[in-house]
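User: Modeling request: complex.
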Amino acid sequence: MAKEKDNSFTKLVEPHLNSLYSTALRMTHNLHDAEDLVQDTLYKAFRSINQFQQNTNFRAWIFRIMVNTFITAYRKAVKQPMKISYDDMEEFYLYKRLDETVSLQETSKEEFLENIFDDDIKNALESLPYQFRLVVLLCDVEGFSYNEIAEIVDAPLGTIMSRLYRGRKLLQRYLWKYAKERGYIKDEFSQKT
Amino acid sequence: MSSAKKHEHYNCADIEALAQRYVDGQLNDYENRLFEEHLEYCLPCDKKIQFELKLKEIVHIKGREMIPDEKLKLKLKNLFTDLL
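Assistant: Request completed. Predicted assembly structure:
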């Protein structure tokens, strides 16, 4: 009987292991904590599998457990959201900056995106305040819908959309900053940083 | 956002207001139709939206991490057998 439970749980969990691990790593910033977070999540999920209703969304269910585990374990460690200036939170931030860049006229903007280093994307994601990071990861990297994210994070839909909006704008701002630091952007910009 | 629905056609400001939901595939059929109709004749909006879609795709691909080795994968897979 116990073996049966073990097998069916393995089958349910296995397709999501990489997603859980990937999100855990982006949230905790290091391999060791990510492994611990996934382990804790799996233990809790295994113990409360009876509460999972068959034929409902297992992926969202187990992500919710991981998010709760993360928030409980890291609440003290997680810094208070830093004060962020939202002055540059305009729509299409990165597109507009690239559009103004004379030295990029020869290259297409899509080409610019394709040339961004994996590490720059990862660093930009990890630099986001954790509430924003979480929704951007769940939406853009893991492909959850707004309703699923609202369920996982236990926040209203409006809050999810607003965090996603701000998170993405910040992400674009970081990518723009990295591009300048790496010397992709050769123009002198005195105001837009 | 709901005010956008009053128009028979979307203007550039509507596109900007609805961009996030479009990129995330969260518009309803009616909104989606009006949105794409605008992109067909407005090149500047179309270019911006194509850029946002591409950026989302890049984040999706490059932001993901794979479990580094089979050993860890196996460990995670078998971890609850200890509980039995």
